[in-house]
């Protein structure tokens, strides 16, 4: 098929040309005296994206899933109690991981479409007088449902309860695209990955830990080796890594950080909000609804609920086979019920309008009762009338 594939899944996201070019470079000796000059500034500049001065950043040749494991196994002890609210496939997988790793996981089921219930969390933390809960696992942006939780609110709940639990945040599909504040929100472990807001291929787990979390690595008896933060700390202080780093990811990250910081993080958040709002206007004009309940809408991904007599999988396969447009699938219990439009990373007005046009064609082909051009028109008006 002529023309490029149009990628609108919420990860991997589109990699900007400048980043692709930066990755296309010869390999080098990662133990050479020149390497720290590449590596150290990456760890420093990443702090500006996580918004921390007190925390310490880490890069593992891995993915976000490893980040979940790194947070848990470096700071806790086997059998420790952790609490998690489950409201989508990613919070589900993190909870399952914690179980498989031998932690005592207190799982609270929430409606898929809502986020962390702050009042319930606060009540539960207040009830835990003996501080048996050692960590709160919070999914900032549930990519499966397009739901964003209020992490500042989670911190407030912990503080209101005077609870010392560590706060671990899955920011894989939020950090570098949605407002995130490591220090201000008192996050102890922030977990991200290269292939979403950072606009890189998968292959980098990008993490940040507070001093409190780093202190906990000293008392953690959990067996660990490849994912041991202490080995990273020992080597990172001199600008090296305990094993071979994924060099192309590092070269790409240099460029991606330059692009993000040049745009300015507040502008990056505002752009994602604006592009997402246009998407929501288009969806409303089609007469369709988000999976996300009001107040929880994500600015990086929209999960669109199809009418009950329709199968979202058909929309996705038509979009791909006929129009070379890749949409996100409904995961697990949402399979067939939603398709997802990713609006994260290297996107602008016209790239979003292309997605809406393609989605309209695919939905019309699948017999949806929508007016051709209605979603595009709503977004055109919104984008034209709002400041970048
Ligand atoms: C993508 C994603 C992950 C998983 O990351 P991998 O890089 O695939 O391991 C975890 N959490 C959230 C919220 C995600 O969007």
From TrEMBL:
<feature type="modified residue" description="N6-(pyridoxal phosphate)lysine">
    <location>
        <position position="196"/>
    </location>
</feature>
<feature type="binding site">
    <location>
        <position position="340"/>
    </location>
    <ligand>
        <name>substrate</name>
    </ligand>
</feature>
<keyword id="KW-0670">Pyruvate</keyword>
<dbReference type="InterPro" id="IPR015422">
    <property type="entry name" value="PyrdxlP-dep_Trfase_small"/>
</dbReference>
<keyword id="KW-0808">Transferase</keyword>
<dbReference type="Pfam" id="PF00266">
    <property type="entry name" value="Aminotran_5"/>
</dbReference>
<comment type="similarity">
    <text>Belongs to the class-V pyridoxal-phosphate-dependent aminotransferase family.</text>
</comment>
<feature type="domain" description="Aminotransferase class V">
    <location>
        <begin position="11"/>
        <end position="330"/>
    </location>
</feature>
<dbReference type="InterPro" id="IPR024169">
    <property type="entry name" value="SP_NH2Trfase/AEP_transaminase"/>
</dbReference>
<dbReference type="GO" id="GO:0004760">
    <property type="term" value="F:L-serine-pyruvate transaminase activity"/>
</dbReference>
<keyword id="KW-0663">Pyridoxal phosphate</keyword>
<keyword id="KW-0032">Aminotransferase</keyword>
<dbReference type="InterPro" id="IPR000192">
    <property type="entry name" value="Aminotrans_V_dom"/>
</dbReference>
<dbReference type="InterPro" id="IPR015421">
    <property type="entry name" value="PyrdxlP-dep_Trfase_major"/>
</dbReference>
<protein>
    <submittedName>
        <fullName>Serine-pyruvate aminotransferase/archaeal aspartate aminotransferase</fullName>
    </submittedName>
</protein>
<dbReference type="InterPro" id="IPR015424">
    <property type="entry name" value="PyrdxlP-dep_Trfase"/>
</dbReference>
<dbReference type="GO" id="GO:0008453">
    <property type="term" value="F:alanine-glyoxylate transaminase activity"/>
</dbReference>
<dbReference type="GO" id="GO:0019265">
    <property type="term" value="P:glycine biosynthetic process, by transamination of glyoxylate"/>
</dbReference>
